[in-house]
Every structure is written in structure tokens, then in C-alpha cells.
Design goal:
2 copies of one chain form a homodimer. By secondary structure, chain A is of the alpha+beta class. Helix content of chain A is about 45%, strand content about 25%. A 3-stranded antiparallel β-sheet of chain A has the order 1-3-2. The first copy, chain A, has a 3-stranded mixed β-sheet with strand order 5-4-6. The structure holds a DNA duplex.
Amino acid sequence: MAPFERELSALRAHLKRSRLKQTAQRETVLKAFLEGPRYATMDELVASVQKRDRKLGFSTIYRSLKLFVECGLAKEHHFLYGKTCFEHSGQGRPHDYLVCKNCGKVEEFSSPLVQAVQEKVSREMDFKLQEHRLELYGICSSCQGPKETRPEED
Amino acid sequence: MAPFERELSALRAHLKRSRLKQTAQRETVLKAFLEGPRYATMDELVASVQKRDRKLGFSTIYRSLKLFVECGLAKEHHFLYGKTCFEHSGQGRPHDYLVCKNCGKVEEFSSPLVQAVQEKVSREMDFKLQEHRLELYGICSSCQGPKETRPEED
DNA sequence: CTTCATGCAAATAGTTTGCATTCTT
DNA sequence: AAGAATGCAAACTATTTGCATGAAG
């Protein structure tokens, strides 16, 4: 199976469903997004998209990512305020995050306890829960090691 | 005891400690902040500060709030992406939030389970935890009622 | 009298939008 | 041919900064 076949089909299906158009640009953006790291900021995305097509403008990239979010191929985050980042969003992935404040690396986790907290709180406070955000910030294990082995700081 | 005496002293102490200056503006901003609701966005703060002093500019307000955050009198949030909001931050307050997506109201809670999740995850993933953010989004109880009783939507 | 803060305007950052042109269907 | 997408520049929002003037230590 060709790379990203599944995601391309998902995109095409979404476009057809919404009576939108299938364009080369949208597929270029999707491929650049998917072949990059699981988490990428807008500027990183712009850079890698433009490596494939210099003329592809940033508005198209913004608009495409919004589309990907709509059809579940991407998930938008604001871990560091002011810098949107997009995650490759698969089906059964965890929805909770550890963010390293030293190197910026994001790790995912999920814990049954989180589910329990949500249920308890929303029941007690009579709140109809729709979504949640759980982000733990700190220093990841590789950044805790001796200075020599740390990823570069910025 | 005069209103906000405790907070004014905390601010003055912080200023002295950092060899910064005690100014009328800073105290005006602090009073306007504290006499308002527990959560306020920047524009709301600007409005209520300028009710007390028309000439007090928004850069001073931004700079003051940053100061309050530094000395623990305020806590910065980004519940709705793109709209910073500041909380009156007391000592023993909970650190977890329920945000109503209909009326924007924020309720606080804390659960021992959250603590447990943090400990478990940071131990398992060898992560040195510094802070966390837990936000539950949904519809609060008053917004679930019959249409007539709902707070205005925007 | 030195250092810091203020107030204003301009700069910046990130993102969105308007519109003429071009591509899909 | 009709409707939608692109690419560009301009608009926008939220925030930060530079700098001359004024106030605090």
C-alpha cells in the first residue's frame, strides 16, 4: 500500500462529503505533514511544505490544516502559548500529554484515573463534559541527565 | 483592615525585593484587578482600570499583571485560545478547572485523583514534574436548563 | 541625580480575510 | 459554466517594545 494511502482516502472522502475540491496543494500539505514528526508547529509545517512546492502559500497551509482537523487527521494544540502545533491524530491514541520545558518534547499517556476524575467531577458538578485537556509540564528523563547528554537548549 | 491590604503589602514587598518602584499606577491596577471577578480577560481589566484612571495605558496594565503573576497575586490562563485571562490567585486554591463552552464561566475543583495521576505518570515516565494544566470543557448546569433560564449566548 | 516607570506610538507575531485569478467538477 | 481554491497582500488581534518624558528612591 502506498504511503499515506489511508489518510489520503480519508481526506478525499471528507472533501467529497463536504462538496469541496480535491487539489494538488491539499495533498501536498497532507503528505508533508504526515512525513514529518508527530508534532509540528506552523512554521515547521510551512518549511516542509515549501520544500515540496515553493509556491504553496501559508494561507493555503493554514486552511488545509483546519480541514485536516475537521476530518480527524490532525489535532491542534497550544502547549506553548502563542505557538499552535499540530499532532498526527490516529484513532486509539492517548489524549494526555507530558511536555518537556527544556527540550519541548511531547510524550503521550493515558491513564484510567483520568477517566475516573472526569466522571466524578462532571457528576458532582452537574457538568456535561465535552472534552478535556491534561498537560503535565516538567523535565523529561533525557534532559535530567548530565549536561553533556542533554538535547540542545534554546 | 483596609481592603486588599494583604495583597498591596505582597506587591510592595515584591517591588522592594526586586528593587523596583512603588507607583500609584501599579496599585490602581491591582485594586481594579482584585475588586473585579475572579477571572478577567485583558480587555475587561483595561476597562475597569481605566474607570479609575483614564490615562493609565494598556502597556502599563500588561506590565503590571506580569508583575502580579511573578509575586503570586495572579495566575495566567489561556482557556480560550487567544484570550489571556487572569485569576485572583490565593494560597490554597484548587488548580483544576471546568470551563463552560456556552457561557464561559469557570469553576474550580481539585481532586486527590489528579494528584495520583500525576505521581503515577511522572514516576513511570521518569519525568520531573513542575506544573500541570487540567481543564474540562463542556456545558455547565445552568446552561443545560431550559432555554429561558440560560445566560445570554455570544 | 540616578534609575526606573509611564504613556504613547510603532513594531511584532500569529493568524485570518478579501479579492482577482486559476483550477475542479 | 459554476463553484471553489489559490496566492498574494492587506487586515486583524493580542501583545511587546522603543523612546522621550516624568516620577520614585
